[in-house]
Write the structure tokens for this entry.
Amino acid sequence: MTRRLAVGQRVLRANDDLAAENSARLETAGVFSLNLMASPGAGKTSIIEHTVRRLAGRFRLAVIDGDLATSLDADRAAAAGARAVQINTAGQCHLDASMVQRGLDALDLSGVDLLIVENVGNLVCPVEFALGTHRNVLVASVPEGDDKPFKYPASYRGMDVVVLNKIDLLPYVSFDRARFRHGVEVLNPDVHILELSCTTGEGLPGWLDWLCEQIEVQRQPIEGVSGRA
Amino acid sequence: MHELSLAQHLLDLALEHAGQAGAQRVTHLHLVVGELAPLEETSLGFYWDQVTLETPAAGSSVHVRRMPLQLACLDCQGTFEPGGATWSCPACGSERVRLQGGDECYLEAIDVEVEPRQKELA
């Protein structure tokens, strides 16, 4: 006998459930966390290096690095002063919640204020796979062109922050900032857009200020909630 | 490549629901996928055949209902499917538009075979 069963659940429900577990762990430990996404070469690792160097004296930082192969990025984050865990995805084009769970297992979260998860460089699917981090951050860069939100709307949606990197190249590249911002804002009405250059340092204070504010908020105990580390 | 992950997740979800209903086999899966969800059907089908081997979903087919990218205009309240690389409202020209639909990716229903319970032998 054939029957039709109504399901009505997201295909990635199991991943969503695991992401919720990760989120609860981070919340309990008072760790503020980012899922940093971008195409390869946009400057994720450079932003992490600058962030770690400038905030290491103030906060305890950790990085989970997702890459197809090598530990080059984790090595750079560690050299800058963060505790770094490399996850090699063995060909998978994104990090998922179970990989981040392994990363969390390898870190002592009680000694961490800020966790940056550096996703695999890919503008196709990472945002589909929730990790349990607090904020989604997309790093775009000027040489990629102002049309990317329109060409990759799937990747540009669901973002809390969009960082436009390499603004020192604006004089040399045809890039319409208004057009770029329009595409980003259509997909993310409440998005925070920041412009910076890791090469000249312009705009970096704005990024660091935003980050520090978020970390401080996360470290404050929530009234009425007990048992929080 | 992520279609392999999606296929595995899809299989787990379908078998969970089939198992709860006491079904022996899954024959059809009905997916709803927005234009923005990164799912390529040919690729999914390829991995589907692999991951379902020797499972109750072996030989089943996956049907995908695609949903278009839909934007809503904040000024005239109209909705539209954008064409090309501009996202202005075609009715009033406003650029104050928001994403309304097209990013869903869920399993709507599955068709299963349930054997009628055999009478207990005395």
User: Anything to note?
Assistant: The helical segments of chain A are 13-29, 44-55, 72-80, 97-105, 148-151, 153-156, 177-187, 204-219. Chain A has a mean pLDDT of 91. Chain A has one domain: 13-215.
